[in-house]
């Protein structure tokens, strides 16, 4: 097995880089800086652009009709990068102003799933995964999470993965997923990340069905087989990698966002790229195209 190459790409340093999605039609990576309220775009030529949203933005997906769908502090929105216009769809947690959206992913039918978390006031486990349907209706999924994360789907679309990053939980679950209805079945333990250095942050699945976890706080990416075994660890030059996503013309480059704040004191000089975007090549596998939101 060849040794992977990890390189920083672009010139952006984010406070909390997250939400990376590669769009095969754009040939570009879209990602966010959550507390800065920024959407970034890094295309195959290396060109970078950014947009200010005006509030914390947790995750996004490309919209089949054009533009983006965003999950922000104030709910789901459609965003037009050409004009900067933002149109509200729904705020399923309007009664919880201390919550915001965090991680998200689309299923194979173009439904957009995104999870919330409390990020203001006293921490508590009141995060929920919400489903935004193509008709723009919103449905409630699993709840009771401290830090919703790790949303990804198996290659056949019939298994959903999700996690809780909180230090007291640091667990990844999987559940059967009904593609016809968008319903999540009973969850079961997939992987307890106490077995590795980092807690579970963002994730993606490769063409072999393996789950790639950003080990936040652990300086590493972890590849977990469908039967829950670690079969590969990739060391990263930053302490807090946050979201991997396959991209590039052949979907064989693993892009990784990272977090530039909350670093362990004394480690700053070891990780000058903290908050940057990275590309990992030479992994010997490929990713899957990400479905656009169908609404």
TrEMBL record:
Q: What does the note accompanying the cofactor annotation read?
A: Binds 1 divalent metal cation per subunit.
MF terms from GO for this chain are: calcium ion binding; gluconolactonase activity
**Superkingdom field:** Bacteria
SMP-30/Gluconolactonase/LRE-like region domain location: 16-259
Q: Which GO terms describe its biological process?
A: L-ascorbic acid biosynthetic process
Annotated positions binding a divalent metal cation: 18, 149, 201
Active-site feature positions: 201 (proton donor/acceptor)
Q: Where does substrate bind?
A: 100, 102
A Pfam family matched by this chain, by name?
SGL
The record ties this protein, via SUPFAM superfamilies, to: Calcium-dependent phosphotriesterase (SSF63829)
User: Required co-factor?
Assistant: Zn(2+)
Q: Which UniProt keywords apply?
A: Metal-binding, Zinc
Q: Show the InterPro entries listed in the entry.
A: 6-blade_b-propeller_TolB-like, SGL, SMP-30
Instruction: Give the protein family.
Output: Belongs to the SMP-30/CGR1 family.
Q: What is this protein called?
A: SMP-30/Gluconolactonase/LRE-like region domain-containing protein
The protein's organism comes out as Falsiroseomonas bella
């Amino acid at each position: 097995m060849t040794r992977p190459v990890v390189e920083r790409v672009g010139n952006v340093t984010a406070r909390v880089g997250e939400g990376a999605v590669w769009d095969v039609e754009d040939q570009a990576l879209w990602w966010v800086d959550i507390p800065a309220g920024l959407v970034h775009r890094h295309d195959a030529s290396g060109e970078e652009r950014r947009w200010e949203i005006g509030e914390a933005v947790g995750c996004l997906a490309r919209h089949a009709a054009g533009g983006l769908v965003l999950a922000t502090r104030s709910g789901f929105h459609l965003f037009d990068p050409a004009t900067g216009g933002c149109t509200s769809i729904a705020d399923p947690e309007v009664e919880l102003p201390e919550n915001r959206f965090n991680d998200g992913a689309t299923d194979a039918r173009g439904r957009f799933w995104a999870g919330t978390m409390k990020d203001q006031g006293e921490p508590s486990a009141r995060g929920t995964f919400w489903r935004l349907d193509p008709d723009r209706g919103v449905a409630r999924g699993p709840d009771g999470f401290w830090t919703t994360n790790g949303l990804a789907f198996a290659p056949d679309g019939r298994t959903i993965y999700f996690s809780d990053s909180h230090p007291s939980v640091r667990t990844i679950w999987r559940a059967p997923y009904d593609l016809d209805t968008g319903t999540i079945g009973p969850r079961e333990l997939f992987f307890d990340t106490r077995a590795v250095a980092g807690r579970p942050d963002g994730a993606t699945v490769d063409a072999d069905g393996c789950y790639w976890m950003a080990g936040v706080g652990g300086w590493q990416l972890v590849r977990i087989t469908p039967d829950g075994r670690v079969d590969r660890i990739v060391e990263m030059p930053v302490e807090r990698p946050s979201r991997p996503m396959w991209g590039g013309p052949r979907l064989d480059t693993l892009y990784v966002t990272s977090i530039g704040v909350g670093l362990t004191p004394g480690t700053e000089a070891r990780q000058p790229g903290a908050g940057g975007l990275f590309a990992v090549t030479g992994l010997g596998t490929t990713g899957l195209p990400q479905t656009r939101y169908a609404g």
